[in-house]
Specification:
The protein is an alpha+beta fold and about 475 residues long. The protein is built from nine helices and 14 strands.
Length: about 475
């Protein structure tokens, strides 16, 4: 049971059925109440019409025996005087309740009684009654009556009549049998129809939900297959619709693409790192083995050079690992101009002249990481320059800018993004590398991005390569 209602399809079906059931119950109750009220009003209208018909006769007849009372068993009538005495009633009335007068037969002076009055008296009585008044408002009550052996529920209307000869109240009933029958029929229809309608709603919801979620089942199956096969080149099927499921499929495929790219990049990184480490380790081992066998042939300088190369490569790999892990750059303040002066003062002079144009430009970040960027850019420029390297620092609005330019052969336009990839070394004249592993520019770009900046390369005025590092100032970094 828990597994059944653990599915979206089952919950959607149950939810839709409950909502429809509540709506049907509310609508059914409203319909029944409206139907009952309408039919009750109709019964009251019939009773009121009958009562007023009798009331109008009270103003014209000479005696109660002359009243023309309805002989319909569905309209029992009582006429009561001001003292509460029954003076006229329907002929077949046997029992009544709800009018306040339980009598069903008139007493003395009631129906059929003859008055011993002359013609003049009769004329005076008629004139007096013609001057009487029938109340415009009727009062309604519910009750029951037995007429000619048939008992039923009634809606009674009470109409008051006033005249100089006396006050009377006419009670007339309208049967509620139609109301009871109609309400009962409607209720029976609802009890039969509502469950069938709920079954139809549940079935349609189940089928529609299953059809709507069919792509989800396909996505789930494909993801399970991808997990089992570890084949990140596979993709989940994307439905042709433009709904949330289609967006889910597209997002899933985008995630798989990014994951595949990351895994492939990691594999290439491991393979390239292994290849780069193999050469200095093999060279160092060879030198040590030769030195062990022939101490006089030991190349100490070469061994130290290979060891330094290994140390630098290991440091680069460790920094890349920390950057990939999302290491925070820190919030220390660094003046790029002072930074560049310090770095240049520590470098030994070689065949390349270094020209510096340094203006104060502060940034917020990691001093160690920024030192690695500056060092890598200078190493790259000195390695490929013919005779001159220019280092410039300046402020450009909210940005601090560091530029390192050389007068070498430059970088082809098509290769200007590729040189920032890891373990990439171009095949042209700029690859006169003395042990470089192709990680320096990749590290510099990663550090720049981690600091919220950019690192690009373009052509220098002297025709070589110009690397421009842009970093946000301390206020921009804080924001």
């Amino acid at each position: 049971m828990s597994r059944l209602f653990g599915s979206v399809r089952a919950r959607a079906t149950l939810g839709a059925s409950l909502v429809v059931a509540l709506a049907l119950v509310a609508a059914g109750a409203a319909v029944l109440l409206s139907l009952r009220e309408n039919l009750t009003d109709q019964a009251g209208s019939r009773a009121d019409a009958a009562a007023r018909k009798v009331a109008s006769q009270l103003l014209t007849v000479r005696s109660f025996g002359d009243l023309d009372l309805p002989d319909d068993e569905n309209q029992p009538v009582q006429v009561v005087d001001g003292d509460g005495r029954l003076v006229a009633a329907s002929e077949d009335l046997e029992k009544i309740s709800g009018t306040g007068v339980d009598q069903v037969k008139p007493g003395r002076g009631g129906a059929g009684a003859k008055e011993d009055s002359g013609d003049a008296g009769d004329r005076e009585e008629l004139e007096a009654r013609e001057d009487g008044e029938i109340d415009d408002e009727s009062k309604y009550t519910n009750g029951s009556a037995t007429v000619d052996g048939e008992s039923a529920e009634y809606r009674f209307a009470a109409v008051e009549v006033s005249s100089p000869k006396g006050d009377f109240t006419v009670y007339a009933g309208g049967t509620l049998s139609d109301e009871r029958s109609a309400v009962s029929t409607a209720l029976t229809s609802m009890l039969i129809g509502f469950p069938l309608l709920l079954a139809v709603v549940a079935g349609v919801t189940w089928l529609v939900t299953r059809r709507a979620l069919r792509p989800v089942a396909a996505i789930t199956a494909e993801m399970s297959a991808i997990t089992a096969s570890e084949d990140l080149a596979r993709r989940v099927p994307e439905p042709d619709t433009h709904d949330e499921i289609a967006r889910l499929a597209r997002t899933t495929n985008e995630t798989l693409t990014a994951l595949q790219t990351s895994v492939e990049r990691q594999r290439r990184f491991v393979a390239d790192a292994s290849h780069e480490l193999r050469s200095p380790i093999a060279s160092l081992r060879t030198q040590l083995e030769v030195g062990a066998a022939h101490p006089e042939l030991l190349d100490v300088d070469g061994a130290v050079e290979d060891t330094v190369r290994l140390q630098e490569l290991a440091a680069d790999l460790l920094l890349l690992a920390r950057l990939d892990a999302g290491e925070k750059p820190g919030a220390g303040r660094v003046d790029l101009a002072a930074f560049a002066r310090e770095e240049l003062s520590q470098r030994t002079r070689d065949r390349v002249e270094v020209h510096a144009e340094l203006k104060s430009a502060e940034v917020a970040g990691s001093r160690g990481q920024l030192a690695r960027v500056l060092g890598n850019l200078l190493n790259n420029a000195q390695r490929h320059a013919r005779s001159r390297v220019t280092v410039t620092t300046r402020s450009d609005g909210a940005w601090a800018v560091l530029e390192v330019a050389d007068d070498g052969s430059g970088v082809p336009v098509g290769e200007r993004e590729r040189i920032f990839e890891r373990f990439v070394r171009l095949d042209d004249a700029r690859t006169r590398d003395e042990g470089g592993a192709g990680l320096g520019l990749a590290i510099a770009r990663d550090v720049a991005v981690r600091h919220g900046g950019t690192l690009v390369v373009r052509e220098a005025p002297s025709g070589g390569a110009l690397f421009e590092l842009r970093l946000p100032g301390p206020q921009s970094s804080a924001e």
